[in-house]
Each structure stands twice: as structure tokens, then as C-alpha cells.
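Much of the work behind modern protein science is quiet bookkeeping, done one molecule at a time. Below is the pair of lines this work produces for a single protein:

***
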Amino acid sequence: MSTLNTEPLATLIERLYTQAGEATSPVLDTVPGQERERLMRSKTDYLELYGMLKDLWLPVSRDTGKLLYMLARSAQARAIVEFGTSFGLSTLHLAAALRDNGGGVLIGSEFEPSKVAVARRHLAEGGVDDLVQIREGDALVTLASDLPKAVDLLLLDGAKALYGDVLGLVEKHLRPGAWVVADNTDYCPDYLAYVRSPQSGYLSVPFADDIEVSMRLG
């Protein structure tokens, strides 16, 4: 048994995935597909895009959530950083791993204030809010300081064009053997080129369709 598979988290997570699947974004529906693609890859207009996405959950898949829990448990993680909290589904999986590892801290970053408020309610309902600090605002600011000296796992699931920049902020804190999990990497070829380079200090492999799992080597 684990915190992930017992109450209150088990039922909460299933309920939230159902809600996520039913969510719509009337504003985003008015944006042409070509413009959506441009915004997804932009390093300057990402705040505009994620303002449009404020009603969408943008969660990791169920399998990715389980993968995050497994990696955090196997690493005996005590310090986790998450870029892109949204409504907190990935956060719940990671916080469950921290609980089962004996405690720790997860520092998350989320731009949209309404999502921060809802995510905090979900964390409290799941009984893991004592393990999580969500920093509201642009991650290039919120994750630029006051991070744990040794980070065991970094999840990248915010604005895709910023993956390399956020990794750059956290990289010096990643301990040898730390995991970096990046979702939706089809939108960030420069990030993939970096972590897959033999000179980068990572061992990196694709997982499923568009996830990259990397280990910090030193």
C-alpha cells in the first residue's frame, strides 16, 4: 500500500482526472490552430497563451503520474521542483511520494492565480499540503532563488519554450542521480538537443510519445 493508492488521495485523483477530461476553454477555441502552434513555441508570448488556458487542467496522463511517483520513490526524493502546477494533479502524485519517503518539500510554480488557489485546495483535500509550496508567478522569477541545495527531481510541464531556461535555473541544485522529467517535448527541440548531448551531463531517453526522462550524471 502507498499514499497514492489509499484514501483520501486515490478517490481524489480519479475525480480530478474526470473533471480534467470534461474541461473546455471557450477562449482558446477561438484561436486558429496555426496561432496556437506559434504561441506554444514562443519565448515571449507564453503568458498570453497560458492566460487563455486558465480553464484547462493540462494534467500529466495517469501513466505519467504513476511514473513520477515511481521515480520519486526510487530516488528517495526529499526535494522536488515542479514547473507548471496547474490544478495540481502531478503535484499530488509527487507529494504522495514525498510522504511515503518520510517527508520533504515540493516547490511548485504556477503563473495563473486561479489555478494556484484551486491546486492548494486539492492538496489540502489530499492531506499533502504540508509538503508543498506553490510559488505564484512567472517561473523565471519564482524559481530563480531559494531552492533546496540538493534537488532530487525536476518536473517540467509549464510553457514548453522555457524548459531550457527553467532547467538552467535548477540545474546547479540537481544532485548526481537526480531525475528530470519533461512533458510535451515535441514543442521544445532545443531542450531535447541539450539533454541528449553527451556533453550535457545527462543520460536521457524518450518515454511514451512526448516525454523525456533524463538523469543528472554529475
Remarks:
- DSSP finds nine helices and seven strands in the chain.
